[in-house]
Design goal:
seven-stranded mixed β-sheet, 20% strand
Length: 627
C-alpha cells in the first residue's frame, strides 16, 4: 500500500512555464523588456494556465512486476482560474485523483501517437494541491527493467529511466515540456538491499530499509527527472564529485573518471560557477541507449566510456557542460534543441582543450565536422531538418536528435568566436549563462540577445556571420569553420603508407588516441580487400578491441568488406552494448545486403531484450521493417 502524502507548503518557481496552448516563456535578459510567446507542440498539458510549482512523489518500485506505482502530489498555482488541470501521461493507469484532499472524477483521453493521453482533472479557482495515484504500464518508454543477466554483475535486477525528450510522462503524470520547470521531493521504496538514486540529493550507501528520500530544490523540467535502482556502489572522487556503478564495475569506473573534479574546475573557469551542488556520475548497465544524460547532480552514462585508458571521458565533459547549457538555460521547445546541444558541444570542446590542449580538441572538432557532413548527406542538403531551428510539429521530437543540432550548432558558435575573438565571446557566453540562469529560451530570443549583447549594430560582423544561413537555412553554410589538422595529417600519412603497401606493423601508431584511430579507419576506402583487413587485424587486434568506438567502426567496415573473421567478436559486441549510436549504424550496414540482413535478424533476435525500449523501437523499424 502506498503511504498517504501530507499536503506540502507551496514552493516558488522562478519563472513562467510553457504548455500546449499559447505559452508565455520569459526568455528575456536582464536588459530586455519583451516576453517571447511560443507554442510547445509536444505537451498536451495546460501549464500555461496552471503553474506547476512543486512535485511530491511517493512511489514503490516493484522489480518483479516491473512496475512503478504510487502518487504524484502537485502543488499548483491556478493563476488563470482554469476549471481543468491537464497533465501528460503515457501508458499510465490512473487509480484515483484528489484535489485539495477530495476525490474527483477525471477523464483520460484516447492516446495520441508519440504524445500519449491527456489527463483532465477538474479544479477550482483556489485549488492548491492535486494528487494523482497511478501505476506504470508495460509500454513505458522511459523505463528499462533489466533482469540480473542483463546487468554487469548478473546478480540483481536493475532499473533506470531515460526521460528525454517526452518520456517522463510514462512514469510520472506531469506537464512534460522543456519549458516547464518545477521543484520536487520524492519518497521511493525499493527492494531491501538495493539503492535508489535520482536527479537530486543522493545517498552514498545502501540503507537497511529500502526507503530513500530525495530533494531537488532547484526548478527543473520533467525531461530531467531521473531514477535508477540497483545493486549500486559509490566512490568519492573529490569533495563535490563521485561515481556510482554496479559493484563489479565501481573500481574501473572510479579510475576512469578520476579527472571529473578537474573538469568541473575547468568549466567554472570558463563560464562561471557550477550551480547544482554535487556533480556525480552513474555508470549504467550496458542497455543504456545513449551516451549520457545530463540529469542534474547525477549524470547517467553508458558503460562504453570505460575503455581502460580514459580516452572516452570527453563524454563526461559534454554532460557536465549541460549543467550550464541545458539544465541552467534550457531550450523552450524541442524545435530549439540546438540551444542545448550546440552550446554543450562547443563548451565540451573548450573544457577538453583546457585540460588536454588545442591539438587534442582539434581532433574532436574535425570528427564532429565529419559527422556533420555525414548527417547532411543522409538527410539531404535541402532538408528542413538540417536547419538549426527545427519544425517538429506532429512528429516525434526524437526525430530532431540527429548530429545537426550538435555539430551545426557548435560550429556556428565557433564561427562567432573566431569572428569576434575568443576573449570577447567567452565574456558574452558567461554573461548569457548568468543572465538567463534557470530560465528557458527560444531561438528567436537568443538571436535577439546575440544582436543586442554582441553584434551591437556591427553590420560587417552581421554580414560575416550570415546568421540566417545557419539558423534558417539547410546544409553546411559556406563560412563553416574547420579545425587544425596537426595530428590528423600525421594519421593521413600513415593510412597512405598502408594503402601503398607498407606493412601495417610498420606504421607509427604507438601514441594514438581513440580519435586518431577513428580518423584512420573512417577515411579507409570502401574497396579495402579481405587481405588488407586481415593485415590490419593481425597488426592491431582490432576485432578484439575493448574500445567501443573503435570496435563499432571496425565491425561496420568488416561487414562492408565481408571480413567474416570479425563476425564472432561482432556478435559478442552486440550482445553487450545497448547504445543506439553503435547499434543503428552497425545493424544498418548489415541490412544493405540480403546475407547481411539475414545475419542482422538472427543477431537481433538473440539480443533484442538487452536493448532499451527506445532502441528496440528504432531497430524494429530498421531490422524487422515494422512501421
Amino acid at each position: 500500500m502506498v503511504k498517504n502524502i501530507s499536503l506540502l507548503l507551496v514552493c516558488t518557481v522562478l519563472f513562467s512555464c510553457t504548455g500546449k496552448k499559447q505559452v508565455t516563456t520569459d526568455t528575456k535578459a536582464k536588459s530586455a523588456d519583451t516576453v517571447i510567446h511560443v507554442k510547445d507542440a509536444h505537451t498536451l498539458s495546460n501549464a500555461d494556465s496552471v503553474e506547476m510549482k512543486h512535485l511530491n512523489l511517493d512511489i514503490q518500485v516493484d522489480m518483479d512486476k516491473k512496475q512503478i506505482r504510487g502518487c504524484a502530489l502537485w502543488t499548483i498555482d491556478n493563476k488563470s482560474k482554469a476549471k481543468t488541470l491537464i497533465l501528460d501521461t503515457y501508458d499510465l493507469t490512473i487509480d484515483h485523483v484528489l484535489v485539495d484532499g477530495n476525490e474527483v472524477k477525471f477523464v483520460l483521453d484516447t492516446q495520441i501517437r508519440f504524445l500519449g493521453s491527456a489527463l483532465h482533472i477538474p479544479i477550482k479557482d483556489k485549488s492548491v494541491n492535486v494528487m494523482v495515484c497511478y501505476k506504470t504500464g508495460p509500454k513505458a518508454r522511459a523505463l528499462q527493467w533489466l533482469n540480473p543477466q542483463q546487468t554487469h554483475d548478473k546478480v540483481h535486477p536493475f532499473l533506470f529511466t531515460q526521460s528525454e525528450s517526452i518520456y517522463a510522462r510514462s512514469w510520472i503524470p506531469c506537464a512534460d515540456g522543456p519549458g516547464i520547470r518545477f521543484t520536487y521531493s520524492a519518497h521511493v521504496a525499493v527492494p531491501k538491499g538495493l539503492m535508489a538514486l535520482m536527479s537530486a540529493e543522493n545517498p552514498q550507501a545502501v540503507n537497511d530499509s529500502g526507503v530513500y528520500n530525495f530533494n531537488m530544490d532547484t526548478p527543473i523540467p520533467a525531461y530531467l527527472m531521473a531514477l535508477a535502482v540497483g545493486d549500486i556502489a559509490f566512490r568519492q572522487i573529490d569533495d563535490r564529485t563521485g561515481v556510482y556503478a554496479e559493484q563489479g564495475m565501481i573500481e574501473k569506473a572510479a579510475w576512469e573518471l578520476a579527472d571529473a573534479g578537474r573538469m568541473v574546475d575547468a568549466a567554472e573557469q570558463l563560464y562561471g560557477p557550477y550551480r547544482w551542488g554535487r556533480y556525480d556520475v552513474l555508470i549504467c548497465p550496458p542497455g543504456f541507449p545513449i551516451g549520457g544524460m545530463e540529469n542534474p547532480r547525477l549524470t547517467f552514462v553508458t558503460p562504453t566510456i570505460i575503455a581502460g585508458d580514459r580516452s572516452l571521458v570527453s563524454l563526461i565533459a559534454h554532460e557536465l557542460a549541460h549543467s550550464w547549457s541545458g539544465n541552467l538555460v534550457t531550450n523552450a521547445t524541442w524545435n530549439d534543441f540546438w540551444l542545448n546541444e550546440g552550446f554543450t558541444n562547443y563548451f565540451e570542446r573548450r573544457i577538453t582543450e583546457r585540460m588536454l590542449g588545442s591539438s587534442y580538441s582539434d581532433m574532436l572538432w574535425e570528427l564532429g565536422y565529419q559527422d556533420f557532413v555525414t548527417a547532411v548527406g543522409e538527410l539531404s542538403a535541402t532538408n528542413h531538418d538540417t536547419w538549426l531551428k527545427l519544425n517538429l510539429k506532429g512528429r516525434d521530437p526524437d526525430d530532431g536528435l540527429t548530429d545537426i543540432p550538435y555539430e551545426k550548432g557548435s560550429h556556428f558558435l565557433k564561427l562567432i568566436e573566431q569572428s569576434v575573438s575568443r576573449d570577447v565571446f567567452d565574456r558574452f557566453l558567461a554573461k548569457y549563462f548568468e543572465s538567463h540562469a534557470f530560465k528557458t529560451i527560444t531561438t528567436e530570443a537568443f538571436l535577439k540577445y546575440l544582436d543586442t549583447a554582441l553584434i551591437k549594430g556591427d553590420d560587417d560582423l552581421r554580414k560575416k556571420l550570415n546568421i540566417n544561413a545557419w539558423v534558417y537555412g539547410p546544409g553546411i553554410p559556406a563560412n563553416c569553420p574547420r579545425a587544425g589538422q596537426e595530428r590528423f595529417s600525421k594519421v593521413d600519412s600513415q593510412r597512405n603508407k598502408f594503402l601503398s603497401g607498407i606493412p601495417a606493423e610498420q606504421l607509427t601508431t604507438v601514441d594514438w588516441t581513440t580519435h586518431e584511430w577513428l580518423h584512420f579507419l573512417r577515411k579507409m576506402p570502401a574497396t579495402l580487400s579481405t587481405m588488407q583487413m586481415r593485415k590490419l587485424d593481425a597488426a592491431f587486434d582490432l576485432s578484439a578491441s575493448e574500445n567501443s568506438e573503435i570496435a563499432d567502426l571496425w565491425f561496420i567496415i568488416s561487414v562492408r568488406t565481408g571480413y567474416s573473421t570479425a563476425y564472432g567478436a561482432m556478435d559478442k559486441f552486440l550482445s553487450s552494448v545497448g547504445r543506439r549510436k553503435f547499434l543503428e549504424p552497425l545493424y544498418g550496414e548489415m541490412m544493405k545486403t540480403p546475407a547481411g540482413a539475414a545475419m542482422a535478424r538472427s543477431i537481433y533476435g538473440k539480443y533484442r531484450m538487452n536493448y532499451h525500449p527506445l532502441a528496440q523501437e528504432s531497430l524494429d523499424r530498421l531490422v524487422l521493417k515494422k512501421s
